[in-house]
Amino acid sequence: MASLLAGTRTLYDRFTSALTPLDGLPPLLLRLYLAPVMMQAGWMKLTNFESTAEWFGNPDWGLGLPAPYVMTALAAGAEFFGGIALVAGLATRLVAIPLAITMLVAMLTVHWDNGWHAISDSSSWLANERVLEAAPRKAKAIDLLKEHGNYGWLTERGPVTILNNGIEFAATYFIMLLSLLFTGGGRYFSIDYWIDRWYQRRMPA
Fold this sequence. Notes:
Layout: H1 2-19, H2 25-47, H3 49-57, H4 68-88, H5 92-111, H6 129-148, H7 151-154, H8 168-183, H9 191-202
Helix pairs in contact: 2-4, 2-8, 3-4, 4-5, 5-8
C-alpha cells in the first residue's frame, strides 16, 4: 500500500512539474479576457463623462454616490488604463486592486438588488422573484412580436430575452481580478515577469 501511494505521489509530482513551464498561460488568458471588458467600460464612461457623473450622483434615478465626478474619473481611469496595463501584464497585482474595488462597488450599488442573474432565466435554481416575474412578460413580448413583427428576422441572431442586470458578470470579473492579485501577470507572457528577471540579475548574490 505504501509503495502504491509513493508511486502515485511520484506520478502526480511529475505531472505538476510538467505543468510548471506553462503556468503563465492562465494569468495571460485572464488578462486578455478582462482587458477588453474593462477598456470598453472605461471608454464608455470617459466618452459620456457628464451623463455618467450625473447618474453616479443622482439619488432619485441614479446611484446617489458622493463626489460623483471624482468617482466617475476614478472608475473610468481604473477601467480604461487598467485594461491597457492588463494587456501588457504591467503592474498586474497593483492594477487588479482598483479594478476589483470597482467591480465590488458595481455589485453593491448597481446589481445587488437584482440578484445573481445577468439575464432572466426562470428555469434556473438561482432565479429570484424578479427573474420569475420576467417569464410572463417575455411570453407576452414574444406574442406581440409574432403578431405585429417579423419574428423570424428579429430572432435570427438569438432568442428574445429580458435583461435582469444581476451581479453575475461583476462577481465573475471580481473573482478573476482577485486571482490576478495573487498570481500576478504570469511567467513569460507579462512585462512584470521580465522586469522581475532583470531585477533579480541586477541584485547582488
